[in-house]
Amino acid sequence: MIPPINAHCPVPGCKTKAPHTADPQVQALLSQSPATIADWTKRCMVELIQSVIADINAPGVGRMFAYLTRWRDPEELYHRVLYALLIAPESHLPHIFSGELPNGFSAIWRKVNEVVYEGRGELLKERTDPSGRAFTAMGLLNQNAHNSYFTMLMTFGVVKDSGNEWKAHVQRHLESWQRRVEYLNHIEGLFRAGRDKAVILSAITNMHRPIEAWKNVKQPATPPVKLVRAALLTKGAKCRYQVIDQPPDMKEFRFRLHIGETRHWDEKNLVFVRTGSQQELLEAFEADLKAVKKEGWVEEGSWGGDAS
Ligand SMILES: [Zn+2]
Fold this sequence. Notes:
By secondary structure, the chain is of the alpha+beta class. The chain is 50% helix and 14% strand. A hairpin with a 2-residue loop joins strand 3 (226-235) and strand 4. The longest helix is centred in the middle third of the chain and has 27 residues, at 166-192. It is elongated.
């Protein structure tokens, strides 16, 4: 059944009796920039990470229960901020900031998985434990967050059986949280630089994409410019860059040149010399190269042509 639409909030299923924006705390959050929200999330994750490090290093066998019960927290912080800043419709932000139901982690994670992880996420994937019981990592996170008896059993069982061994696993966990803090740092910087939401979303999607998955990414169907010959020369503080290439939409080749104080060259500062057949231009290129070397230009780098 589709929940009735609330006049105060566009989020399906919300039961608020007044617009969320009437709440001064929601207003305070809405007045923060996305960069600030990313920064706050990052700092909160760092506090949790430092706290877990202290749990591992606590005297004796450490504090496993304290760690387990906060296992979901960094996950929730991270996915919620990606959802709020990059995926959710902007009209949903007051609801998300209000914390009112529905605002569950599972639903948020599902969206992030769909968009940022491109469906590769594993938190909701069903697995089987050694006794044949089905479980999901999400279920485990929730059990732990609720201080369940199962979590107590796990704590005292694992610690009794293996003492300190659990700490090595937590170390790996901490590293993945730390990596996400770095990702958030990058996102914050992109927001501060005024980049578009779509650009930032694509950046975070790329950061999460494993090498294997890159192979399946369909690149836009623009064939690359075909580079035929290039050389970089210098004379004192001056640089000379000459290049022959062929754009995908051109039958002819082009000979272009950049001379300037900067070693940097791009599409804007390359000057068109001429177009022609590959053979013609290559001959011109080599003649040019020979002539400028006589004028004192020194070849620093060369691409294409023969090595002589
Ligand atoms: Zn709402």
